[in-house]
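Quick one: structure for this chain?
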Amino acid sequence: MSMDVTFLGTGAAYPSPTRGASATVVRFEGECWLFDCGEGTQTQFMKSNLKAGRITKIFITHLHGDHFFGLPGLLCTISLQSGPATNKLPVDIYGPLGLRSFLWRTMELSHSQLAISYAVHELVPTQDQCPVEERKELSFVDRDEALSKEIQGRTIYLDPSEGSYPLVDNEQFVMKAFRLFHRIPSFGFLVEEKPRAGRLNVQKLKELGVRPGPIYGKLKEGVTVVLENGATISPSDVVAEPLPGRKVCILGDCCGMVGEGAVSLCYEADILVHEATLDDTQVDKAKEHGHSTPKMAAEFAKLCKVKSLVLSHFSQRYKPTSQIGEGDMDVSELKRQAELVLDGQEVVLAEDFMTIDIPVKKAR
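Got it. Here's what it folds into:
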């Protein structure tokens, strides 16, 4: 039941020799999900131990270039590596309204013939996700008949009762998006594993005269069974409490949240990935450009009682101690500033190619 998070790009604005543009991968039970795809992401894949061809879902937080300019090239490379006779399932891509039009026009203008199929599911933002002067009319993006015929996908609206966007809900996990405030509409994403059945008390079943077989499976599934001798066994008699699922939240660029959805969905997350573009001394500049500082990220993490805060999306001016040059600052200062808010709770600074394992939770 493995689950981990790998950072392929942790820099802001543009890729550099020390940090790639935004790209984060979550792996869960053999699936590979990419969150943001800045310029050069496919090169970062090649440098890592991850395989781009295993991507099944892609999530774009917002439509600033350092978060999605790498997407067309990545899709083309996955297509080339897949070959003409592939049985690969379509790649599901989730992102803000306008992403479908961008991808279709890019592929059309470049005459790119993909051997894979993909669907683009667009999130319709609300008016309060960006400053008034930055709002743009996007109703035109789906008017092209060719576009609507060639690219499949849903148009997803906010569920006002939860303050979130429902994306995926299957037997193993739930995925939702929630609103952030930035210079343009931005989103955060929740990946939550569903509770798993508790351990079956095999010894007790044997004492009750029940041998291994189909009955064990029914009890694990929560079904009450009646034995041949008329005895009734309830799942609660022989199955331990369900094991809580793991939760990861990955936020796009933001200087605040919109509505209550972000707090409720991120509450007690195992890992919260939050941007910290500038340090606390630059708070006014950060907010002016729709970004966060370590203190802002830590205050949100504290409000949500998250288990671990991971800072990412650093301005390229922040370097590790060994790489500091003229005009650079030590990135460890961002860690110190965040930990002051969290009363010493350790904060992780994301680095390119860092992987964080998320262990299976035990019964409460």
